Amino acid sequence: MSWKNCSRCGKAYNWIPGNRELCTACIKLEEDNFKKVFDFLTSNPAATAQKISQGTGVELKDIYRFVRENRLRLVKTDALLRCESCGVPISKGKLCDKCMKNLEDEIKKEQDKYRKNHNIPSNSDRNYRIRRNNQTGSIERERRKNK
Length: 147
Ligand SMILES: [Zn+2]
Ligand SMILES: [Zn+2]
Hints:
Shape: elongated
Strand content: 5-15%
Bound molecules: zinc ion
Strand order of the largest sheet: 1-2
Order of helices and strands: EEHHHEEHEE
């Protein structure tokens, strides 16, 4: 038994290994939402996520979560850019503002950890750059090129 924060509402709850990372209240809510979306799609098979959201009152991000979890397949997808991380529609780039911010926080945390583990004083930042390797996802230290 361990405490986790619900990935939907953020509340701490008792997580049982193997279960979804949602608290009981959110699981219940999601099941209700899923049923609503499913029923709506049964009578409107070509509805886009936007239409489903309008028709059911279920938030877009919850609909995209179902799609991500492969519980739902949308016949028609809206011709919009989507955040590569959470799937919400975005107007530019690859990530929505929220995921971008999360990624930045995460990278910053890893940078601090890296610095600590390798005894790199933060004032060495001028000579080195710590960045995430997009291919491997690992944090690397790179000497800045002299201009
Ligand atoms: Zn929750
Ligand atoms: Zn996102």
